[in-house]
Amino acid sequence: MITTVDALHSLKPNAEWVLRGDVLEWLDDVQTEPTTAEIDAEVTRLQAVYDSNAYQRSRAVEYPSIADQLDDIYHNG
Fold this sequence. Notes:
This protein is mainly alpha-helical. The chain has four helices and two strands. A two-stranded antiparallel ribbon has the order 1-2.
């Protein structure tokens, strides 16, 4: 599940802030604090991206890594 922390990292990389529960304390003097609406929209966007990649994640565990496949071909091929 995508969180507010994920959204903040995505929206404002390297920004300085503290999140205490649901209270955001903005400490960064360079980057502006995102609005609640911007954070909520980014959570929704990131969740949609994550959800759309569910098939790839589930299939990736079904196969060995490329390195293991090539090693198998080299030794058994």
